[in-house]
Amino acid sequence: MTSFKPISLVALAVTSVFATSALAEQAKGEEIERIQVVSKRSSVLTEITEDAEKLINMPGALGDPLLAVYALPGVVAAGGSMGEPAVRGSSPDDNYFEVDFMPAGYIFHDFGSSIFNKYLVQDFRLYSAGYGTSFSDATGAVFDVTLRNPKNQDIKTTLDFTMFKAGVFVEGAITDDISFYLSGRKSTLPLFFSEGEEIEDEDGENTGITINDAPDDYDYQSKFVWDINNNNVLSVLFTGAEDSAAASFSERADLSLKNPDFQGDADFARSFDSQNVIWDHYGKGYQAKVGIGSLTHSGRLDYGRSKLTPKGYFEEEKEELLTYKGRVSVNVVGDDLLTFDAAYFDKTISYEYDTFLYVCTELDPDCELAKGERITGKREVDIGSYFVGANYQYTITDSLIADIGVQHQKNDYSDESFTHPRLGLTYHINQDQSVWVKYGSYNRLQDIGTILEDTGNPNLKSQTANQSVVGYQQFLADDWSWSIETYYKTMDDLPLALTENDVDQHLRYSNDVTGRAYGIDLLINKNKTDRWYGWMSLSYGKSERTDERRDITRDYYADTPLVFNMVFNYQISERWNGGFNFTARSGQSYTPIVGVRENPEFEGNFLPEYGEPFSERFDAYHRLDLRFERKTDFFGLNALLILEVMNLYAKDNTAYIDLDYAKVKSTDDLILQEQSDDFEMRPSVGFSFTF
Questions:
Q1: Residues 659-674 pLDDT 10s
Q2: What is the pTM of this model?
Q3: What is the DSSP string of 176-212?
Q4: Where are the beta strands (DSSP E) in 574-651?
Q5: Is residue 408 within 8 Å of 390, Cβ to Cβ?
Q6: Best CA proximity match to 215, nearest among 24, 6, 9
Q7: DSSP 511-537
């Protein structure tokens, strides 16, 4: 739900307060891209890859392979440790998520985990830049998740219990050719709250926030695979998730003091459900894949319900997406590979709202100050789009391989079409060393809130980007390897929020922002030998945006120049396994508050005066997480005990700085407060057993 600015404002306030408080309460209570034809049966895909298993076992990720993405080069959490991933200087909104060949609803819960059970992920690939013709409508990174196929075995059930989630996983055979699994998980956060409980801050003071419904989430996945014969496999996949929270904001709450419209009860919920059917055909020298899917995504935010405004305000968005997708890969001559991709997306988005108009973008330091008129309405939008792509992997010599690709895409909402080259060249210096260069151009439709007739400018052009990558990799003895990759991105036609200083303010937005991001990523990796494995990554990057109307260039809000990660895992004994994850990074940029002014709409309330946008940085962020596993028995059943400690030395990392609205009584009171990015030291215990 990113279409309307108030949804991101109030929902973020509700979920961030709950998430921070929940974690505190719990603490108290205790790459080179390769495409190839695979002519094998589906049983090959029932086992998790070694790389995915490393991510699952990474300390601090709670067994969640997608959370572990933040330990990969070039990835940061935009806006804090619980933010969406920003990859190599691009916006989180520029990313594209795909699960088993089909588009995903969302893959991260609001309260700090992904939607996937750790038993399901067969492989996970992050395409950071310069990816090929198989993905469209993305100018940032591509998160490509492959769920493993169910095992043809007697039906087994695994139960998981942790401080944060409880889950059940069932897997087995229905017939000799048909197998399935079913996963269901639910958050345990409601166990730490009571209805009517008042939230306290780090100093034990009342925040003015009362719990109506505790933060909660659930997710499910189910996959049925019919292994028809050696050449054909039919898969049916069901996936869904939901997140919700409800609170009451009194007149003492910071949110209410900043904007009294938000005073009262607030409820937020979002969910999605998807159903996909995928057919794989494995032929001699070629592979074909066809998918048909339905995705329903909805979200609703109610806020400001009080005695003065009994109905309050609300925003509701519903999205229905039908996807038709196909891919054919053919070995043509020798090792040459020709791949065709095509997809058609039929999307219907409906909105209903009684709220206030906020005209702002990521360039604005505080969207809450961009409040406009009250708007009420209901609207439905149909968006049809398609893409076709072709890539020829040409083996020039035994050492030199070229990828020559082109993609064409079109949408009928903005009536735009694009034809993009995607090129790559890899040179294998010898058996252990390779160097490569990649280039591609990309585009995506603007966020719907900026191009909807009632809230944006329907005539905005799509965003575009150009990405270039140069890399080198070397394999060493004892399963060591290292790689270094540098990138350069340019971004054009990004949205600019228009103000009273613009003569065309009535248009709300224009295409007058450009951007660029560049950097270098170093990765040193050790595969498991001698009972241990690990990796270390170091990234330097720069990301900035330029207001072309005013010729002003500033750091992007998620700009994080230096990021360091070190992960280590050691097999202590046959039963014990342990390791650590250390993360350090530059403080993200923020806009300093330099003064206080009166709220022009509400007498006696005050608002911040900001200095130069994104001109200062928080202190450096760092954190250490530990994880230990012990294989054990539980009444004769195979079981696993997991012990984790996150933020071991309780580093207080800053998330944001704002006015202390409760203490500000006049324009002379420049009193600031800091909010922690992380929780204090948090232990966690998990237990699972299979029967």
A1: 999 899 999 999 998 8
A2: 0.86
A3: SSEEEEEEEEEE-GGGG--TTPEEE-TTS-EEEEEEE
A4: 576-585, 589-590, 593-598, 606-610, 616-617, 621-634, 637-646
A5: no
A6: 24
A7: EEEEEEEEEEEEEEEEEEETTEEEEEE
